[in-house]
Write a structure and sequence with these properties.
Distance between the termini: 18 Å
Radius of gyration: 14 Å
Helix content: 25-40%
Largest sheet: 5 strands, mixed
Number of helices: 3
Strand content: 15-25%
Strand order of the largest sheet: 1-2-5-3-4
Length: 154
C-alpha cells in the first residue's frame, strides 16, 4: 500500500474503484507530467447517494460531504492512470461545479469538501488553485461534480 493510500486509511476513508465513464470519455488522461481527471460525480457503489440542487433539496453540509467523495473518486481516477498515488507531486487545480438553487451562493464552502479532503490526504501537496462554479444542473441530477489536475513525478 502506498503512503498516500495508508494516509487515506488513517483518516477512516476508502479509495474507491475508479468510476466507469458514463459516456464517451476516459476517467483521467496523462499529458506529460500532468494528469487531468474528467468531472467526478459523488458516486458510491455505482450510485449517487443524494440528488438535487444545493440550497433546495440538498443542504450545503451534505453537498460538502459529497464533494469530499468526489475528491476520493478523482484520486481513484488518477491512480488508474499512474498506478501509484505516491507519484503525485502536487494538486495543481481543482474545478468544482455545484448544482445550485437560484439563490444559493455558497459554492466555495461546498467545494471546500474537496479541497479539505485533498489537504488532509496529501498535506502540502494538496494545496491548489481552484474554481467553484454554480450551475443549473449536473449529470444524473448530481449536486456536485469535481475535476482535478495533478502533477506527477516518474
Amino acid at each position: 500500500m502506498s503512503a498516500v493510500e495508508s494516509r487515506i486509511a488513517e483518516l477512516g476513508l476508502t479509495l474507491p474503484e475508479v468510476v466507469p465513464p458514463l459516456a464517451a470519455y476516459q476517467p483521467a488522461v496523462r499529458s506529460g507530467a500532468y494528469v487531468f481527471t474528467s468531472g467526478q460525480l459523488p458516486m458510491v457503489g455505482g450510485a449517487i447517494p443524494m440528488t438535487g440542487k444545493v440550497g433546495a433539496e440538498v443542504s450545503p453540509e451534505q453537498a460538502k460531504e459529497l464533494a469530499a467523495t468526489c475528491a476520493l473518486n478523482a484520486l481513484a481516477a488518477v491512480k488508474s492512470v499512474v498506478g501509484d498515488l505516491d507519484k503525485i507531486v502536487r494538486v495543481v487545480k481543482v474545478v468544482g461545479f455545484v448544482a445550485s438553487a437560484p439563490d444559493f451562493t455558497g459554492q466555495p464552502g461546498v467545494i471546500n469538501g474537496t479541497s479539505e479532503t485533498l489537504g488532509a490526504i496529501l498535506g502540502d501537496k494538496g494545496v491548489h488553485a481552484r474554481s467553484a462554479v454554480g450551475v443549473a444542473v449536473l449529470p444524473l441530477d448530481a449536486p456536485v461534480e469535481v475535476e482535478i489536475q495533478v502533477e506527477i513525478a516518474d
